[in-house]
Amino acid sequence: MESDFFKNQPEGERLAILLPCYNEGKTIAQVVVNFRKTFPFARIFVYDFGSSDDTAAQARLAGARVVHCRRKGKGNVVRQMFADIDAEVYVMADGDGTYDHTAAPCLVAALITERVDMVVGKRHYHNKNGERFGHAAGNRLFNKIYNRLFGDDFTDIFSGYRAFTRRFVKSFPAESHGFEIETEMSVYASSLRLPVAEKAITYGERIEGSESKLSTIKEGIRIFLSMVMLLIEN
């Protein structure tokens, strides 16, 4: 169901769907199709940062606007997306098909009705195999650390499924290079005491042959160092 906020709005004037992708050729087409069904009027952008497979071709065939990024790393891509795209409301999700597209209207509705600047999709794993053990333990640890350092605004700081206002997108500095970008978004909101919300979403499994790009130990170290630097800066 579309939010009342978008009824009778001109095509593409209000909502942008942002999908940063790296080697998601097996899933991205269905992700684009699903979001198109959910928000027929939205502009859908796939930002491809150096994929070696057919991610860009599949996204374009599915109807997305594809942008190729010179700099690799999710943080670099988010910085470019936020600078490039003008909209009133933004929804960001991954291109791996793990986020439920039918939850997007809930995130957008919360953004508008609760008058917040960011809504985070709090992940619920409907299948025990949906989250690797290392990721699960790391998520719990880092969320506890975050709550002690920055406050209790969030319980899932690593979720990549988020809705934003234009005010958030155009003011967010986006200094991170990689997967620590979600942590930076959360710290930014908590430090400035911006109005935020979390909404429970179902988080699915990757399809067979689709692999996570996240290295638990490597990215965990980078995220921890990022937290320390953000704490010092704020």
Report on this structure.
This protein is an alpha/beta fold and 234 residues long. It has a single domain, classed as Spore Coat Polysaccharide Biosynthesis Protein SpsA, Chain A (Alpha-Beta Complex). Helix content is 39%, strand content 18%. The chain has helices at residues 28-38, 55-61, 74-84, 104-113, 133-150, 166-171, 181-191, 216-233; strands spanning 15-21, 43-48, 65-68, 89-92, 118-125, 162-165, 196-203. Strands 3-2-1-4-6-5-7 form a seven-stranded mixed beta sheet, with helices on both faces. Helix 2 links the parallel strand 2 and strand 3. Helix 5 packs parallel to helix 8. The mean pLDDT is 84.
Write the layout of secondary structure elements.
Elements: E1 15-21, H1 28-38, E2 43-48, H2 55-61, E3 65-68, H3 74-84, E4 89-92, H4 104-113, E5 118-125, H5 133-150, E6 162-165, H6 166-171, H7 181-191, E7 196-203, H8 216-233
Parallel strand pairs: 1-2, 1-4, 2-3, 5-7
Antiparallel strand pairs: 4-6, 5-6
Helix pairs in contact: 5-8
| Average pLDDT rating | 84
Estimate the global geometry from the Cα principal axes: globular
Oligomeric state, counting identical vs distinct chains: single chain
Fraction of residues in helices? Answer: 25-40%
Strand order across the largest sheet: 3-2-1-4-6-5-7
Number of helices: 8
CATH H level: which superfamily?
Spore Coat Polysaccharide Biosynthesis Protein SpsA, Chain A
From the N-terminal CA to the C-terminal CA, the straight-line distance is: 39 Å
**Poorly predicted regions:** none
**Strand portion, in percent?**
15-25%
